[in-house]
């Protein structure tokens, strides 16, 4: 068929057109001209940039489509200038393509397992009326956020910076529901399943477990509300798990069952996926029942930051105050400071922290300076309250997790 | 075209939110030997932009591992004889 090559031709033509326009604007280097497509940071695989586009899922604003089915859509960085990421802009991430529309009236949550002495089943009304409500701010961040920037590249969804979002979550404590189900001291893990399924039966169902201690943490929630509204369909309606501090792989969407276990969950998504090499990252939380000889499950987020309002390879006015804004986050200790460099990391100055929305939220920050004419490389570096900071060199791992290399934003003034 | 038919069957079965199908229908993989098999087998579980997105970052060994994972872990119904054709296509058209 000729249409395939024609399709490629269209893309090449578009690129040439952009270059031609850039040329007429008097810019000399191609990379500067291509900067503002908004599809992803420089450094993503070429095929990821070419196949991504802005598209709109029902109920969402246009997001960066990384894959259609299952849907994986990334939030544009400009949406991170709000303290809470709007629900319509919140990223979407699925492993399995069977995603049912759930009727909240007939939805049930089953809680049982070999170390739950009084198993129970809850309707949404029973969940909402039976336990104290808790509301907290927490960052939801995909383990593979920034995978597309791994060097060398690794297979998977080629995320840029936007597989994350900060929200205010409302629900009940998981520990209260587990207590009602009669969790005993023999519980080792608590496993969670959602309503999404694979198109073929042979695919391992997406089931994730938490160590019992994390499940019983007072901040781990069963949530039905996000930023004051019911969860959007694409973010787990009617109910999802919220695991503050830990990466989003544990935040089970469309939650339908909870299995309180005396043994480790042995499914693919625990035993083989979402693992990091042992001893390479400054991680505090261990997941002992799932530790293997060389790998261990990913747990809490590493300290990280992002500049949100300055475009890489953007052009800004010299000798005029430039306000740099961003966000910083960690695994739940809270951000202590953000330092900013305008010379690629030689000299550092203190950024100003914004409101503290809680230790599981990201923290907004800002930094202002008067740029001299010429090129500048902006770098931000966050440090949390236990002294964990970002790296300058990638800690390579085969799945591209925990990329907290300081970001370098090149600007011309 | 086999892929179109398969896609419409999947949509009709309602196993996933059909809204996503309109966009993926426009994906055009590169012409080359094996494309038809790649399209019909891979599309059973995911849109073909997964292939484009993961290019050009995998060599033959990388594509072998990726296709092997789909068969051994994800349960993709791909005959042994087809695996080589699929890996050849992916390596040639979307390899590094």
Characterise the protein shown here:
The complex is a heterodimer of chains A (413) and B (96). Chain A has helices at 3-24, 30-33, 46-51, 124-130, 174-180, 212-215, 268-271, and strands at residues 53-55, 63-67, 72-74, 92-93, 108-112, 120-123, 133-141, 164-173, 189-194, 207-211, 221-226, 229-230, 240-242, 255-261, 275-277, 295-297, 304-307, 314-315, 322-329, 335-341, 349-350, 352-353, 363-369, 375-384, 408-412. With 413 residues, chain A is an alpha+beta fold. Chain A has two domains: 25-299, Alpha-Beta Complex (Sulfite Oxidase, Chain A, domain 2), CATH 3.90.420.10; 304-412, Immunoglobulin-like, CATH 2.60.40. In chain A, the strands form six sheets. A five-stranded mixed sheet of chain A has the order 6-5-14-9-10. In chain A, strands 7, 8, 11, 12 and 13 form a five-stranded antiparallel sheet that branches. Chain A is globular and about 70 Å long. The termini of chain A are far apart. Chain B has 96 residues and is mainly alpha-helical. Chain B has one domain (2-94): Cytochrome c-like domain (Cytochrome Bc1 Complex, Chain D, domain 2, Orthogonal Bundle). Helices cover 59% and strands 0% of the residues of chain B. Chain B contains six helices and no strands. The longest helix of chain B is centred in the last third of the chain and has 15 residues, at 80-94. Chain A binds chain B through residues 1-5, 7-8, 45-48, 50-52, 55, 57-58, 65-71, 97-99, 101, 152-158, 197-204, 268, 272, and chain B through 10, 15-17, 19-21, 23-24, 27-31, 44-47, 49-50, 52-58, 62, 66, 73-77, 94.
Task: Record keyword descriptors for this entry.
heterodimer, A: 413 residues, alpha+beta, Sulfite Oxidase, Chain A, domain 2, Immunoglobulin-like, 5-stranded mixed sheet, 5-stranded antiparallel sheet, 7 helices, 25 strands, 30% strand, B: 96 residues, mainly alpha, Cytochrome Bc1 Complex, Chain D, domain 2, 0% strand
């Amino acid at each position: 068929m000729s249409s395939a090559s024609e399709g490629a031709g269209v893309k090449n033509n578009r690129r040439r057109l952009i270059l031609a326009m850039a040329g007429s604007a008097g810019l000399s280097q191609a990379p500067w001209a291509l900067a503002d497509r908004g599809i992803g940071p420089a450094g993503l695989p070429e095929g990821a940039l070419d196949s991504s586009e802005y598209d709109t899922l029902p109920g969402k604003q246009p997001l960066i489509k990384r894959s259609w089915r299952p849907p994986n859509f990334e939030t544009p960085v400009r949406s991170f200038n709000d303290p809470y990421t709007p629900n319509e802009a919140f990223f979407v991430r699925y492993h399995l393509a069977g995603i049912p529309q759930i009727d909240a009236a007939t939805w049930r949550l089953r809680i049982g397992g070999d170390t739950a002495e009084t198993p129970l089943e809850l309707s949404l009304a029973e969940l909402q009326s039976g336990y104290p409500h808790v509301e907290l701010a927490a960052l939801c961040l995909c383990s593979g956020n920034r995978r597309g920037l791994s060097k060398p590249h690794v297979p998977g969804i080629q995320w840029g910076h936007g597989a994350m979002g900060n929200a205010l979550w409302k629900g009940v404590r998981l520990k209260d529901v587990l207590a009602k189900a009669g969790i005993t001291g023999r519980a080792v893990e608590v496993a969670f399943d959602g309503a999404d399924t694979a198109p073929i039966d042979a695919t391992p169902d997406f089931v994730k477990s938490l160590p019992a201690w994390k499940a019983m943490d007072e901040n781990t929630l069963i949530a039905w509300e996000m930023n004051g509204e019911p969860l959007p369909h694409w973010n787990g309606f009617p109910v999802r798990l919220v695991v503050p501090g830990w990466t989003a792989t544990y935040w089970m969407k469309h939650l339908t069952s909870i299995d309180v276990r005396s043994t480790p969950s042995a499914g693919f998504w625990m035993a083989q996926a979402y693992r990091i090499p042992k001893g390479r990252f400054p991680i505090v939380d261990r997941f002992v029942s799932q530790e293997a000889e060389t790998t261990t499950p990913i747990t809490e987020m590493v300290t990280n930051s992002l500049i949100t309002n300055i475009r890489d390879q953007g052009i800004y006015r010299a000798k005029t105050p430039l306000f740099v804004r961003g966000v910083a986050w960690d695994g739940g200790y809270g951000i202590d400071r953000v330092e900013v460099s305008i010379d690629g990391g030689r000299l550092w100055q203190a950024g100003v922290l914004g409101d503290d929305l809680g230790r599981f939220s990201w923290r907004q920050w800002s930094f202002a300076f008067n740029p001299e004419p010429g090129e500048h490389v902006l770098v931000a570096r966050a440090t949390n309250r236990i002294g964990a900071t970002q790296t300058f060199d990638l800690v390579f791992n085969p799945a591209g997790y925990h990329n907290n290399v300081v970001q370098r934003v090149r600007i011309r003034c | 075209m086999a892929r179109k038919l398969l896609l419409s069957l999947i949509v009709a079965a309602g196993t996933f939110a059909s809204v996503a199908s309109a966009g993926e229908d426009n994906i055009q993989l590169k012409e080359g030997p094996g494309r038809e098999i790649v399209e019909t087998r891979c599309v059973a579980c995911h849109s073909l932009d997964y292939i484009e997105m993961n290019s050009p970052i995998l060599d033959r060994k990388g594509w072998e591992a990726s296709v092997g994972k789909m068969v051994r872990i994800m349960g993709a119904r791909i005959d042994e004889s087809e695996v080589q054709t699929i890996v050849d296509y992916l390596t040639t058209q979307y390899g590094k």
